[in-house]
Design brief:
Number of helices: 4
Bound molecules: 2,5-dideoxy-2,5-imino-D-mannitol
Oligomer: single chain
Shape: globular
Helix content: under 10%
Distance between the termini: 38 Å
Radius of gyration: 23 Å
Length: 537
């Protein structure tokens, strides 16, 4: 007779995994995907999220819930929404938003039944901890008449002119992704207005990162504040004339990448000006949702998907990372700038500082660690490429390499002026809306990130505007398998899974041309979790 070993719980498995981030939000164990219901309520930040507490796979998702007073450390709250025994959300409580219905916290979400989702509503207690589903669910009983839709789910809801307006993400067969506009006086009875904007699935490419897909998931419409304090003062608060429509391009079950249109929301239509990539990591920063906090900032979280197999996720007992909170704003060049919220710096511990020096092909060590926040200031001559290696073994067998290249031919704005006016912003890079040339390129090379051949090693890249005098300011955040890179307001997010314990080294070197390091500072980052957390808080 054999004695069965007790099986480790999901939480034990998750806690033991070296790839599990320690200062990003993760679920207690099991599966996490999209951020949901983001908001600040009487000073407290609320983060709800797609959660499967029963396994590390996407199945019958619940709404997990956590709160924070500082945006970076979180307290688990009871699971907010559980799929019903029967009813319209029996197969999952999919993504949605939180609104303030005259003092009543109210969630609009997508109830899944079979292979379809329909809008559902739940109201919360004053502390947002207990939720009651509306007996009239679904509050929209079917797809709008007369449109052949590829899929239909996810919500963006706001108050305007004494009524509620709602966008539902969707796609029109044979045309492209769309955001369907509705309006209501009570959040429960909705009138279909029409598609706010519809994409063209015959343009753009998956490789170029600008294909808008056959369906738009997690549509998010907002007016970003201006990035520059001086612009804000000049324009007056709220006077920014640019609106942004964010969506995640989806096709037939495949999650591609987050994109956004800049343009103008004009009541029943969105007049697009330019299409842009929100994150050069593509699916590694997916299904973002944003909210305006009490200080007027636009704060975004996104889902960092895994780059390992379903089997590896199940073995690890957990899957999915929430991004750090990002503050987004409209840059002077007419596109969004992104940076980690300043609160992230409160997690910093010891600092290691590296003085200015010329860079050579010999790597300059920048310390070691797999839980780091890095600020690096470089100056690149035209044509130069600098490589920043992280999670590298001393012998270089494993290394994740970020390369920053400045094109031949001078500084961005001067080059743009010589070329004259340019057309609308391009998603693939090159120029942006005010004519600024994006003459820098960031590339992520994961071909040596892991000796495990089953993890994703596909490269990532995108353009950014090099600063005056060839200056390139980097912020690189490494949290075990989670990697978030910011260069001049552009973001590149990815996941890495080194196998060797000594894959912890950071260094910088010149690959070609002439470049110098102006400054580098690396901080240890403290854990935001103090131990195992209950699966059902
Ligand atoms: N994830 C949710 C959907 C959404 C997708 C389901 C995006 O509502 O469209 O977990 O990742």
């Amino acid at each position: 007779m054999s004695t069965r070993e007790p099986q480790p719980s999901l939480v034990d498995l998750a806690e033991a995994d070296r790839h599990r981030p320690r200062f990003h939000f993760v679920s207690p164990a099991g599966w996490l995907n999209d951020p949901n219901g983001l908001g600040q309520w009487h000073g407290t930040y609320h983060l709800f999220y797609q959660y499967n507490p029963t396994s590390a796979l996407h199945h019958r998702v619940h709404w997990g819930h956590a709160t924070s007073t500082d945006l970076v450390t979180w307290t688990d709250q009871p699971v907010a929404l559980v799929p019903g025994e029967d009813g319209p959300d029996r197969d999952g409580c999919w993504s949605g938003v939180l609104v303030d219905d005259d003092g009543t916290p109210t969630i609009l979400y997508s109830g899944r039944h079979g292979d379809r989702e329909l809008p559902c509503l739940a109201t919360g207690s004053a502390d947002l901890v207990t939720w009651v589903k509306d007996p009239r669910n679904p509050v929209i009983g079917g797809y709008p008449e007369g449109l052949e839709l590829t899929a239909y789910r996810d919500h963006c809801v706001w108050r305007e002119g004494g009524r509620w307006r709602q966008l539902v993400g969707s796609g029109i067969a044979g045309r492209g992704g769309t955001a369907l506009l509705y309006e209501s006086s009570d959040l429960r009875s909705w009138r279909f207005v029409g598609p706010l904007l519809t994409g063209d699935s015959t343009t753009g490419t998956v490789e170029g990162g600008d294909w808008t897909g056959t369906m738009w998931e997690c549509v998010d419409l907002f007016r970003p504040p201006l990035a520059e304090e001086s612009d804000r003062r000049a324009a007056g608060d709220g006077a920014n004339p640019v609106d942004v429509l964010v969506f995640s391009a989806w096709d037939d079950g495949v999650t591609h990448h987050p994109l956004y249109w800049t343009g103008r929301y004009r009541g029943d239509a969105f007049e697009p000006h330019g299409l842009h990539r929100l994150d050069y990591g593509g699916r590694y920063f997916y299904a973002p949702q944003s909210f305006r906090d009490s200080s007027g900032r636009r704060v975004v979280f996104g889902w960092l998907q895994e780059g390992r197999t379903d089997g590896a996720m199940v073995a690890a007992g957990w899957s999915g990372v929430m991004s750090l909170p990002r503050v987004v704003a409209l840059g002077a060049d007419g596109v969004l700038t992104q940076a980690p919220a300043p609160e992230v710096a409160s997690l910093r511990g010891d600092e290691e500082h590296h003085p200015a020096q010329a860079l050579t092909p010999t790597p300059l060590p920048l310390g070691e660690g797999d839980q780091r926040d890095l600020e690096v200031s470089l100056v690149l001559q035209p044509g130069a490429t600098v490589a920043l290696a992280l999670a590298a073994t001393p012998d270089g067998t494993e290394a994740t390499v970020l390369e920053f290249t400045r094109a031949h031919g001078g500084s961005g704005r001067a080059a743009a002026d010589q070329r004259g006016p340019v057309e609308n912003g391009t998603a693939a890079g090159g120029t942006v809306e005010d004519g600024t040339v994006e003459d820098g390129t960031v590339t992520l090379d994961r071909s040596r990130s892991s000796l495990d051949p089953s993890v994703d090693a596909t490269p990532r890249s995108g353009p950014f505007p090099v600063g005056d005098d060839g200056r390139v300011e980097l912020r690189v955040v490494v949290d075990h398998s989670a990697l978030e890179v910011f260069v001049h307001g552009r973001a590149l997010t990815a996941r890495i899974y080194p196998t060797r314990e000594d894959a912890r080294h950071l260094s910088v070197r010149v690959v070609s041309g002439t470049a110098r390091l102006d400054r580098a500072a690396a901080w240890t980052m403290r854990d935001i979790w103090s131990g195992p957390r209950p699966l059902y808080p």
